[in-house]
Amino acid sequence: xxxxxxxxxxxxxxxxxxxxxxxxxxxxxxxxxxxxxxxxxxxxxxxxxxxxxxxxxxxxxxxxxxxxxxxxxxxxxxxxxxxxxxxxxxxxxxxxxxxxxxxxxxxxxxxxxxxxxxxxxxxxxxxx
Length: 128
Prior knowledge:
Blueprint: E1 2-5, H1 7-12, H2 20-28, E2 33-36, H3 38-50, H4 54-61, E3 65-67, H5 71-79, H6 87-99, E4 103-107, H7 111-119, E5 124-125
Parallel strand pairs: 1-2, 1-4, 2-3, 4-5
Helix pairs in contact: 3-4, 5-6
């Protein structure tokens, strides 16, 4: 079984925020964690806004499994029912959904994405 993490969860591993220690502890206990390839762009963009060294982000990305969305992922993302879900978050959710039966659940600190994942019947976990 695998866990899917969105960018908000990944960045907790690299920054010092309230939930960072809990996220690092939980993350270190896992065997398999997947992210959408979209994480590469989002993490570098957010990292530049936060002043996080791009080399630190790139090193961390080398240690995770990145899933490349396919054409159907974009269609699934566009068809998700929650109207308030932003496009990039919809791509994260669609990627997680397409993992299928191997998916244990999703980790996200984004409330809109978490609600959408629950609406899609995914298990959502937030280390605190």
